[in-house]
Structures are given as structure tokens and as C-alpha cells.
Specification:
967 residues, alpha+beta, 23% strand
Amino acid sequence: MSGRGGGRGGGGRGRRQGSGRGRPSPSFHRGGNGGRGRGLDSTRGREPSLPPPPSQVTPTQPSALSPPTTSTSSVSYPSSGVESLSREVTQKLTLEPTTAPSPPPSSSKAIRFPQRPGFGTVGRKCRVRTNHFLVGVANRDLHHYDVSISPEITSKKVNRTIIEQLTKLYRASHLGGLFPVYDGRKNLYTAGVLPFDSKEFVVKLIDEDQNHSSSSSNRKERQFKVAIKLVSKPDLHYLQEFLRGRHFECPQETIQVLAVVLRAKPSENYTVVGRSFFSPQLDRKGELGNGIEYWMGFYQGLRPTQMGLSLNIDLSAGSFYEPLLVTDFVAKHFRHANLSRPMSDQERIKVKKALKGVKVELNHMEYVKTHKIVGISREPIGELTFTLDDQRKNVSVVKYFRERYNIVLKYASLPALQCGSEAKPVYLPMELCRIVEGQRYTKKLNDQQARALLKATCQRPRDREETINRMVRVNNFLGDNLVDKEFGIQVQKELALVEARVLPAPMLKYHDSGRERSVNPGFGAWNMINKKMVNGGKVDFWTCVNFSLEYANMSKDFCHELVNMCNSKGMVFCQSPSVPIRSARSDRIDEALVDINNESRSKNKPLQLLIVILPDQTGSYGKIKRICETELGIVSQCCQPKQAAKFSKQYFENLSLKINVKVGGRNTVLSDAIQRRIPLVSDYPTIIFGADVTHPQPGEDSNSSIAAVVASMDWPELTKYRGIVSAQAHREEIIQDLYKSSQDPQKGVVHGGMIRELLVAFYKSTKQKPYRIIFYRDGVSEGQFSQVLLYEMDAIRKACASLQEGYMPRVTYVVVRKGKRHHTRLFPTEREQTDKSGNIQAGTVVDTTICHPTEFDFYLNSHAVIQGTCKPTRYHVLYDENNFTADILQVLTNNLCYTYARCTRSVSIVPPAYYARLAAFRARCYVEEGTSTSGSTSGGRRAMDRNFEVQPLPNIKDNVKEVMFYC
């Protein structure tokens, strides 16, 4: 990719020669050759000029950037310019994809992310194994066909059965002897050309639910028309060119063909959930409680890497319904011990929500028949009647089963399961229906189930590595005729060996009054012994309220110990509460909090901190936080009563860390930050953003998604992060409120949004405007990279332009991928390279072999794992105007992971992204405070339409937003 010319200001700003780096093809406009505009706040007069770069910047930093200049040559601000910024972006989003049968060369229609600026060199070199398996592909003439099945079938399993039958019938006569591979939906692929471009076939299937004991001539047959039509010819040569770095657009269609081939056999043999496969035959299964069990399985994904195509295989676990009688499930899931008594309306609604969509089988007849539950009856089954088709008269369900099958129903007071349709319902007794094995339980697990699943799946690195190897042996790709012989795909049996480096831990600064003024953490962990917080917060007005009945008498002693701990760690914490400590009933939380607030304000002592000992029963946390933070403007620290009652020194120490940042203090700071030695951060004012979007749990279709953005407010220290939250449409991943504007009759265009608010707050805090923006974005899947980048970069540009004419800080946009977003694991090759848990050491970074062939990404294991196998975080740079080198960005990201405020450990994802996640979850507490942790909430809510009006979140009080309230 060519370098960038034109640059900023009058002169041009280019890239380093030979780096091959470039910008995404859309042009997010920058200034040209104008003068300086007004400051961020027009009432403040002219903006202070930027200071020259400090002399302490390390020699490894690239040449100093010229001071920011502003201009209006490319854009006219503020109103028309803001609108023009989005025109090209909108155009990019609406461009039609190419319809050529083979992928074209790299074109301007594709977004090109920054190329890798080189490989990192900092750190101690080592080698690690990873759960990536090299894939070789022989030259085959791949063809892609569209499949249309009529009548349309929603079940992938049935669709596969249809195509399997078609292949058996017509392979020799009509398919040219080829074995096609099918994805269960619309796509069929062959390693060779079929003797037609378009053809229709007829396939007959015997209904599996019909009487298996009867003769085949009496079985019900279903007839399907299958139309197969040529779509394209995926090009393996283009894939090889991409893997060699000669093309920049990933040939996703070709990779999709190969992925479907590799998934064909597992899809036939196991239960498929997304890209994972589950079966009791693969590994163990066990109970999670409440009628739910876990199955072990494996994840499988094919991706392009520097070493070539890689098959990523990882251990996976899923929750499934136990194959129980429905009566047994109801008894276990809802602890409904007495099945002889009628259900209340509330219980019936919960049962309906838990069972809707579940398949059950009846085996009281000569054959097994399956049904899907669509609801449950309002009346007990003992009161239900229906009309017999042949007699045209009503008969009770109880009587029907007694006379027809000689079955006396034991639980006539329970409602019936409703199957069929609303117009023609079929009522089935719960006690005769067994839940079909292998159905995924998609609702939220309760705390007990989540702990059980975590315990069952937690494996040490050596054990997990062996399990992955066993999964590969079970798949036996080399022995699969379809994979090996037909499509020429060979999968290596050994885990890939990768070059890695262990980055050094940063030096952390603590207060000079402590016996230890700084610490260089080893293995990602340290402690607060002999240390004091670098900036201790001050608490003059505070009190405590105890909602626990079991531990009602510990409040004063608990607060005494907590205050002493805070003071010993460097805070200035008044020993006496400003209003009396009290206990309160858990059913009067609102009243107690309002009374405390009124009393403190009447004394002209508004609370800076409220210590809350939570009720014994869970479920009140969200309510307390909503009242305190959005109604009363009180910063609170909640404590679990059982933990608090232990009076553990470690617990008090952890609480002091949280409290200090909630009242405006800092716990520790990077020494390099104080000494202005962080390249591309310390030389000019830099703001670091973190952003995330959290979505409702599956099944909660009426709840909004919640976006959160945090930003550093204390350059150059980079430890204090202000947070903002916003509700948006259900499961919308793009953050909608980064920038927004409205038309006011008097004021004209009114600008707003999360980015703008945080930039203004940064200016008020530091008296400087950011010259650089580093934006860590969590929660984006790879398929959304382009769309999210286009929209959110456009919003960032608009927010900046709305503040000052021509204001265009340089942006680096990095996606953070953790959790379910990737499945890469790293394993040590030598015992000397491990930590206490047997995992790779904190600070291990990989940017070779398994990373993207050309783009700027890396895997970083920044934390020390307490149990199980570590999972590195993947960082992928989608936009970079700051010319970060691999070393500078990797070291910066790793060092920031040591500044997380809530503990004395490095964390697994960069703190700005972590804080955004915490802020989003806090906001969800405001709107879901009453949601049951069992996942069985009241039914009757309709699914949210994308155009449904989103209910805004309650506004967080300004004094609360000033501090890190979400910690």
C-alpha cells in the first residue's frame, strides 16, 4: 500500500519509506493549510498552544511529530463540514459488492486496514505451542452452487438429509461422480464442475416420526424439489496470493468452501452449535443443576495466517437440557416439589418460557413421535377437552389417555404441553413427554450453574493441550475421503510451534511516604505491603448502611477496620461518619437511601461515600446502584455480607483500592508516565478511549443493548477514566451515540454525543486538547470490522470538528478481542517458561506465524492466570495515523494492563476496554435490577423490533461521573 501524502497543514506528512503501511481507503478528512481556530470552549478565549516535545522521550520513538495544525481547506466547519465528513463513508457502506465469479485484485471498494509496520523485538525470546494446525490444500477446481429446497425447511439436519439422499440417487448419473459438500442452508460446493449450470431434482424422504413397525409402503413420504444453480468459481490461486501478501482482500468465499468441507463430517456426527460441535461421545458430560447439563466438545475455525491456512481447534463446553420427563424437569428447574398441586399463573408463565421451543418425544405408543412445545395450557390437563376427528364430539384428555392407551394420568392438576398450532392445538401430558437429548439450553445460567460449568471446564494447560490433541485424532482429517481425497485438504496433526517474546513488566510508582516507593512486578502480580497509594483520596463525609439481617451487628467494627486500612494506604479518611451508621430492612431500600441522603444534606455534609452492606439475598445490587448514582448523586461501595464478616485483611485492602478511585484518587502510576517517557503518548496531550457494547442475554429480546465509552482524564498519568453510557437498539453493535446533533429553533445545530462530552471533560481537566486519540474498541467480531470502523471513525471526526474549526487529532483505532471472539490458546514448551499455574508468563506476546498475513495484529497474554489455561487477548489495528511501531504499541498495551485500579495484578485486557465493559454492565444494572439470575423471568414480552423506540438510561449525576464510579 502506498504511503500517505498531502499530510497535514501546508507541508505533507508521509509514512516511513518502505513500511508499506497505509490508511483505509475511505478518506477521513484532515485539515490542509489554514490557521488556528477557537478553543474547545469559545468562552475561554484562544486555545493554549501545544508544548514542544519533552526531551525525556526515549530514543526508540520515531521522529517527533509536528505540532497539530488546523485548517479549513478540505472541510468547511462547523455545520456543512460535519455533514460532508460522512458522505464518502456513507457511499462506502452502500456500494454494491462485486459479482464477478472470481475475486478481483485489491480495489478501492474494500477497506484496507493498516499493514504490519514490522515485527516486535522487545522482550525475552521464547517458543510456545498453539492450538493452530497447518492446513495444506491441493489444486482443485472449486465450484460454488446455490441450493433451493421446496418446500422450504428450516432444519439444517433435514436439509442435509435431503442433499445426502440426492447424492446417493444422482451422483453417478447427474453429478459427474463428484461428492458435493453442503452447509445445510443455501450453499453447495464441489471439487470439479457438475455437468450442468442449473438443474432441478426430486427427492423423497420418509417421515421419521411415522410408525417404524409398519411396512415401508404405509410410511408417510415427503417430496422435495431441489434446484441447484452455479454461482461462482472460488479461486485457490488468489487465496495463495493473499497468504503470500500479494493481495490485500481476503478471499472469504474460498476460505468458506474449505471450512465447510472440514465441518462436513463433524456436522453429521455431532450436535452443531455455531462453530462448535458437542457429543457425549467426544468427552464427559455432567449436571449443572435445575435440569440442565453440560456437554464437552470442540470449536473449529479456519483462518488465514502468516504460516498459511490454519485450523484453530479448541475445547468447548455447552449447556443442554437433560433428557428428562417434563415433570422431572419442572420439579428440578423450578424446585416444584409438589406436582399434585395446581400451578399459579406466575409459575405457569415461567414454565412456559422455560419450555417454549423445546422438542419432546412420546414413547407410550408403538413408535416414538416428537413434538415441539409452543406453549402450555391455561387450565390443568384434568379440565381440558378436545374434539376427536372421527367422532366429532368433545372428550377429556384424561379420559382419552385412559381409554385409548390404558394410562391413568397421575398429575391431572398440571397444565398440558401445547404443540401444533393455535388453530389446531395438540395437548400432551407433561408426565408422558421426555425432553429430546441434545437440545442447547440458550438462557442465562444462574450463579450456581455458571460456577459448576466453570469448575467442570477448568483445565490446566497440559491437560487442555492433550484434550485438543485427542479431538484432532478423533476427527482424523487425513483419513476422511471427502477432505483428503475429494478436496485435497491435509491437516497437520501437531500443534503449531510459534516464536514469542516475554515483555518486561513496567515500573509502578507509589507514594514517596511509603517504605516502597516503586515496584517492578514479577509474574503479573504484586501487593500493597509497605506501599501507599500514589494519590490518596480524601473522604470527609461518609456513612454506612447495613441491609443484612444475618450480620446486622458488625457494621461499626467493619467500618472501623475499613477506615483504618484506607488511611494506612495513603488516603485521608475521616474516622467518624458524618451521619450515624445504621441498619435497615432489605424491603425498604429506597426509603433508607433517601433518608440517609436527606439527613446528610440537611447537615450541609453531602456524602462523598456510602458504604453499603448488601442484603443476605441477592438481587438488590442494581437497585442500590441506580438509586445512588442516578437519583441521589451518591458514590457507593457495596460489600457482600458473608465476605465482609470474615474481616479479611486482603478484603479490606481490595476495598480500599476501589474506594480510592471512587473518590478521585490514584492507586499507582506508570513511572514512565510520570517521567514523560512513553513514546507517542508523553510528548503531546493524548487521550485514551475504551469502548464496548453489551447485549442482553439470549431470550431477553425486549431489552436494549448498552454502549459504554470511557476516556483518560489525567494526561500524562493515564490512570483516571471518566465513563459515559447509552442505550441503543437491541443487539446493535455500532455505538450510535458517539456523535449526535439536533436542530434547535433558537440555537441552530446543537452538537452532542459521548466523544464530544469526553473531549470537553479532558480539556477541562488538563487545560489542553488532545493531539492524539488512542481508541481501544472491545466486542467487535471480524465480520463487523469495516462497518464499525467506518461509522465510528466518522463519528469521532464529527465530534472533533464540532468542537473547533479544523480540529483533527490523529487517531489510532484498535479492536480488542477476548472471550468468545477468538479461540487461540498458547502453551509453554519448557517448564522454565511457566508461571505457578503452569501457563505461559505474563507479558508473552506473539505477532508472527498465527497472526494475520499482512495486517497489524498481535496476541498478548498480559496477565497471570490463577487457574485453568490462559487465553491471550488479540489486538487488531484498524486505523493508525500515529505511526505506531509493533514494539511501541505492544509495550504500551502491556504496560497499561498493570494500571487496573481494582487489584494488584495485571489484567487480561487493556484497562480502558475493561472499564468500558464495567460501565456497560453497571448501566445494565439500572434497567435489569429485578431480573432473575435463574434466567427464568416473567414471559409475555414481545421481541424488540430494530425500529422500536429505545428507552434512554437514567442520567448519572454529574458528581458521580467525575470519578470512576463503575469500579
